[in-house]
């Protein structure tokens, strides 16, 4: 496999992305970007079978519209990694800012630690396209706001009640949010309800837990045996009567 | 959008302006080249006992005499000079920045508890509302403020901020949205010892402005951030609220959250909301406020703008982006994201 190394010191994101695209065009299977410091839009709209290893702290909108590649970040992410991503995978060895997986349409995001506000805002799904966001630590308020599809899994590595913030699933009308441990009812958003996660549903999250454990070299067993809850829309059309009468 | 950054050295060790310049320039994407600015606390040790009154003049020859006369009515101009600037290819010098070191005569405001501050605050409002072509944009002691229409690095080079040392620095990169970019509209905004940088909008500006103007402040800069400086001056200086309580008034918890608090906490939160309802700020914002002994960072109640903090030794950094802090201090530790409405305060300890 051909590996290309790019030194991003002092490089603006436009020439950086040009170098990435050129490397992919030349058949690189792995791209290592060193000394990343706040460059936005890395790997945006990028397609192909390539793994990009990002060393440093990338700027916002990493992997926006990305369609296929894998980005592995060795540092924290800023706002909205995986914004409207189509396919591929983002693995973050650290935490991420607000609006992680914003409007995500497909692919997977794994965050080792915590995420900010409005994680998974307006994630969606269609047919075989079903995006997944896995968070190892905790999240802030408005998780899964306006969520229309896909799956958010919060593992809460350091707490049995990982989310203590308002508006979980506020405006949710599709998809589900799975949380390890429990969630106080008062943190549920408008149109969201809490259900236990049944044994059958667990099958869906086991592979995600195993992936998470493998990516970050963590023992998956404590998660496997624990209990989970899910936050889903309160009905099939929770906001049917909001703007019109039927 | 806008980008903000602030740093305090809690032991009062000074930093020159080169670090914050590169940090703010890293966030160029957050601005539009129409406004940037910096403020340094501790920048005028030789004049530290005098109010450093900064003025943008449209025209020195016609207007400066009027300002000089107005100041002289209320005290003594100890020293004044044009703020040194250095030509930049893309920055048009539309105003002449000037600074006065001013000593007000406290006997001229006999009924005030803080006559000197009140004289200077009065002069700021008076000049800004009655002398066309002169704008006072900073008025604190030992505080140097630099702003203009341009990109962060251009404005920094225009004033050569690396020639100044401060134990607190704030920086702001503007992306004007609701009003045009102009020199007076660039941040930081300052009144007396308060300086403010702000990313976002105060959508409650109308209500806040009516409230603050009822206490004699006058909004003259065509932009919402101005009210934040005046609100801090009113609540924290004149009413004596702590920074924590001031932030509670401006970005309070929701009523349903207050209902769930332990009794004592519920009482104080309810009291603050009831007493300072018209000071509540709505809309998306991340703000850093500086005063001579502290910096205070906070966001709106539902966190619609980013704010990240980091620390290293005596230094506390607050910024829109982690990368900007790392540009200034590569070895920074304890990167955290404050909760919505939670004040992050760095205080001088020595």
Description:
The complex is a heterodimer of chains A (246) and B (350). Chain A contains 3 helices and 11 strands, in the order E-H-E-E-E-E-E-E-E-E-E-H-H-E. Chain A is an alpha/beta fold. In chain A, helix 1 links the parallel strand 1 and strand 2. Chain B is an alpha+beta fold and 350 residues long. Chain B contains 10 helices and 18 strands. The longest helix of chain B has 16 residues. The two termini of chain B are 35 Å apart. Chains A and B meet through loops of A and helix 10 of B.
Please sum up the structure shown.
The complex is a heterodimer of chains A (246) and B (350). With 246 residues, chain A is α/β, with parallel strands linked by helices. Chain A has helices at 13-25, 199-216, 221-224; strands at 3-7, 30-37, 51-57, 67-74, 87-92, 108-111, 132-135, 148-154, 174-180, 192-196, 228-233.
Strand-helix topology:
The complex is a heterodimer of chains A (246) and B (350).
Chain A: E1 3-7, H1 13-25, E2 30-37, E3 51-57, E4 67-74, E5 87-92, E6 108-111, E7 132-135, E8 148-154, E9 174-180, E10 192-196, H2 199-216, H3 221-224, E11 228-233
Parallel strand pairs in A: 1-2, 2-3, 3-4, 4-5, 5-6, 6-7, 7-8, 8-9
Antiparallel strand pairs in A: 9-11, 10-11
Chain B: E1 3-9, E2 15-16, H1 18-26, E3 36-41, E4 51-57, H2 60-74, E5 75-82, E6 96-104, H3 115-130, E7 134-138, E8 143-148, H4 152-159, E9 165-166, E10 168-173, E11 189-191, E12 194-200, H5 205-213, H6 225-238, H7 243-250, H8 255-259, H9 263-275, E13 285-291, E14 294-299, E15 308-312, E16 315-319, H10 322-328, E17 333-336, E18 344-347
Antiparallel strand pairs in B: 1-10, 1-16, 2-9, 3-8, 3-10, 4-6, 4-7, 5-6, 11-12, 12-13, 13-14, 14-18, 15-16, 15-17
Helix pairs in contact in B: 1-10, 5-6, 6-7
């Amino acid at each position: 496999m051909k590996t290309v190394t790019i030194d991003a010191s002092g490089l603006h994101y436009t020439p950086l992305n040009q170098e990435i695209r050129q490397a992919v065009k030349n058949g690189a299977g792995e791209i290592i970007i060193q000394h990343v410091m706040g460059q936005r839009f890395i790997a945006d709209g990028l397609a192909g079978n390539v793994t990009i290893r990002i060393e440093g702290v990338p700027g916002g909108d990493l992997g926006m519209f990305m369609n296929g590649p894998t980005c592995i970040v060795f540092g924290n992410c800023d706002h909205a990694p995986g914004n409207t991503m189509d396919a591929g995978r983002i693995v973050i060895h650290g935490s991420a800012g607000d609006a992680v997986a914003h409007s995500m349409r497909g692919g997977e995001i794994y965050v080792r630690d915590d995420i900010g506000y409005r994680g998974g805002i307006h994630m969606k799904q269609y047919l075989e396209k079903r995006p997944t966001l896995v968070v190892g630590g905790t999240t802030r308020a408005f998780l899964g706001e306006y969520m229309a599809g896909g799956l958010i899994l919060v593992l809460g590595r350091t707490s049995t009640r990982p989310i203590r913030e308002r508006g979980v699933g506020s405006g949710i009308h599709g998809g589900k949010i799975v949380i390890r441990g429990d969630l106080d009812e008062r943190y549920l958003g408008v149109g969201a309800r809490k259900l236990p996660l049944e044994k059958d549903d667990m099958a869906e999250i086991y592979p995600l837990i195993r992936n998470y454990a493998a990516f970050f070299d963590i023992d998956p067993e404590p998660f496997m045996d624990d209990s989970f809850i899910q936050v889903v829309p309160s009905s099939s059309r929770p906001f049917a009567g909001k703007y019109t009468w039927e | 959008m806008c980008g903000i950054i602030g740093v305090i050295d809690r032991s009062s060790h000074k930093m020159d302006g080169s670090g914050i310049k590169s940090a703010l320039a890293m966030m160029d994407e957050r601005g539009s080249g129409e406004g940037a600015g910096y403020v340094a606390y501790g920048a005028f040790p030789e004049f530290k006992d005098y109010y450093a009154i900064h003025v943008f003049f449209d025209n020195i020859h016609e207007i400066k005499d009027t300002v000089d006369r107005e100041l002289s009515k209320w005290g003594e101009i100890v020293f004044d000079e044009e703020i040194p600037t250095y030509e930049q290819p893309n920055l048009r010098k539309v105003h002449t920045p000037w600074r006065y070191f001013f000593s007000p005569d406290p006997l001229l405001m006999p009924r005030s508890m803080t006559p000197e501050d009140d004289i200077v605050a009065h002069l700021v409002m008076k000049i800004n509302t009655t002398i066309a072509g002169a704008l006072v944009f900073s008025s604190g002691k030992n505080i140097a403020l630099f702003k203009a229409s341009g990109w962060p690095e251009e404005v920094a080079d225009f004033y050569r901020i690396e020639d100044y040392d401060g134990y607190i620095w704030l920086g702001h990169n503007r992306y004007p949205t609701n009003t045009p970019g102009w020199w007076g509209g660039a941040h930081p905004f300052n009144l007396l010892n308060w300086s403010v940088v702000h990313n976002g909008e105060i959508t409650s500006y109308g209500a806040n402005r009516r409230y603050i103007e009822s206490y004699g402040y006058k909004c003259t800069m065509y932009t919402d951030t101005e009210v934040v400086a005046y609100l801090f001056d009113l609540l924290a200086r004149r009413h004596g609220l702590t920074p924590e309580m001031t932030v509670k008034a401006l970005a309070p918890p929701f009523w349903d959250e207050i209902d769930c608090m332990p009794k004592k906490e519920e009482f104080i939160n309810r009291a603050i909301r009831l007493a300072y309802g018209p000071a509540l700020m709505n809309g998306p914002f991340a703000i850093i406020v500086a005063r001579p002994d502290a910096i205070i960072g906070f966001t709106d109640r539902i966190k619609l703008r980013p704010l990240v903090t980091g620390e290293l030794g005596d230094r506390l950094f607050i910024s829109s982006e982690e990368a900007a802090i790392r540009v200034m201090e590569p070895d920074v530790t304890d990167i955290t994201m404050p909760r919505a409405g939670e004040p992050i305060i760095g205080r001088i300890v020595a």
